[in-house]
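Progress note, sequence design subtask.
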């Protein structure tokens, strides 16, 4: 029997978000290139979400990436799931989320997008859950209010969050009310990159390799820096039951955690490193990693860093689609999906239970699915954490009250 597959990392742009991007003319936006000739059909629209995508030296038909129904159609998502035997997907809005919105409209837009996502899940019971998105450009009380609203929606399982937070990064003290609300409601924060590294890091010939440098290196390193900044700022000391899921197996975190630990222990300047939880303790108590890493080498490092019960499988659909003609069409399998499944199989040779946990069982326990992955409990939590969580909810309330004084 095929193992249970639960896709923790899968994106969609609901129709309201497609309309939002299509109405814009600066990054992020969706552009419609003109036809090549007056009698030619219109080429596919182009998704321009990275600053490097909007290169005026390129023709409009070569900027960004083509966008098709797989980005916005829930039918395409369900078909993809069926073809790859995925039981349940936890869908999330893809980057750049709502980071670019003016404060005046951010909160209302977030509510509308989150309601769209919840409605999509409700229309396909047992197949879909969702991570919500936040109006990060709105005042912090609006973020906290949306966190509590999401907690009341039965098919939401947390939220997806970029690395800039309110604009100053995830170590910004102004985010403490958000962390407090997430801890109190026991929702998962899925931390996902978008901004990468400065373009000059990749040199003047980066365009020759397309998206390889920003996606293979920029995204994972962005996540790495964001997490380490949170750790050094004491976020996990102030909110010891905060739950975060790091995208792309945490970037370089599994490989560099030991170096971070050593640097903290040997730092002589200021108070940095004193009185802080061990980074390994944070990784094994507060952090989950997705398995979107495409190799057993990276997956083994993720397992070593957080434990096999805290690694979750994902596809990153609809990104990384087939590029070879005919690949992935009809009943065909996507190469990117096969690579992530094979990474698990190779990393867990002789350990069937470990492999099944990563492919779906760990998500079942974390998010509250039944053992077949076809039904949803009220909320995915560990029953034996209730007493500790009640204590942390009291601490969270105190933090919110203290921050509100300033």
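Output:
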């Amino acid at each position: 029997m095929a193992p249970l597959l639960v896709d923790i990392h899968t994106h969609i742009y609901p129709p309201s978000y497609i309309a939002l991007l299509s109405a814009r003319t600066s990054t992020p936006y969706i552009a419609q290139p003109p036809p090549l000739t007056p009698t030619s059909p219109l080429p596919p629209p182009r998704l321009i979400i990275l600053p490097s995508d909007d290169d005026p030296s390129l023709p409009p038909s070569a900027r960004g990436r083509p966008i098709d129904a797989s980005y916005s159609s829930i039918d395409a998502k369900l078909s993809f799931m069926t073809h790859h035997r995925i039981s349940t997907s936890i869908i999330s809005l893809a980057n750049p989320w709502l980071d670019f919105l003016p404060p005046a409209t951010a909160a209302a837009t977030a509510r509308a997008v989150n309601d769209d996502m919840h409605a999509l899940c409700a229309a396909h019971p047992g197949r879909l859950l969702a991570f919500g998105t936040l109006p990060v450009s709105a005042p912090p009380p609006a973020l906290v209010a949306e966190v509590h609203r999401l907690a009341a929606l039965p098919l939401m399982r947390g939220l997806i969050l970029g690395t800039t937070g309110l604009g100053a990064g995830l170590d910004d003290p102004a985010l403490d009310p958000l962390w407090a609300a997430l801890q109190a409601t026991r929702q998962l924060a899925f931390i996902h990159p978008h901004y990468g590294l400065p373009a000059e890091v990749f040199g003047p010939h980066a365009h020759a390799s397309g998206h390889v440098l920003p996606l293979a290196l920029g995204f994972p390193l962005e996540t790495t820096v964001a997490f380490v900044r949170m750790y050094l700022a004491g976020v996990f000391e102030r909110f010891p039951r905060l739950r975060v899921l790091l995208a792309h197996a945490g970037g370089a975190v599994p490989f560099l955690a030991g170096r971070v630990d050593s640097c903290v222990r040997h730092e002589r300047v200021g108070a940095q490193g004193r009185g802080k939880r061990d980074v390994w303790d944070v990784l094994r108590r507060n952090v989950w990693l997705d398995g979107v890493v495409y190799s057993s080498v990276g997956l083994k490092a993720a397992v070593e860093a957080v434990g096999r019960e805290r690694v979750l499988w994902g596809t990153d659909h609809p990104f990384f689609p087939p590029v070879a003609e005919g690949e992935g069409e009809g009943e065909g399998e996507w190469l990117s999906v096969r690579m992530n499944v094979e990474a698990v199989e190779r990393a867990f040779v002789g350990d069937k239970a470990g492999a099944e946990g990563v492919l779906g069982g760990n998500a079942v326990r974390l998010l509250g699915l039944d053992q077949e992955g076809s039904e949803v409990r009220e909320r995915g939590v560990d029953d034996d954490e209730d007493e500790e969580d009640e204590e942390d909810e009291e601490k969270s309330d105190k933090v919110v009250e203290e921050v509100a004084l300033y």
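Confidence is low (pLDDT under 50) at residues 371-378. Work on this subtask will continue into the next period as scheduled.
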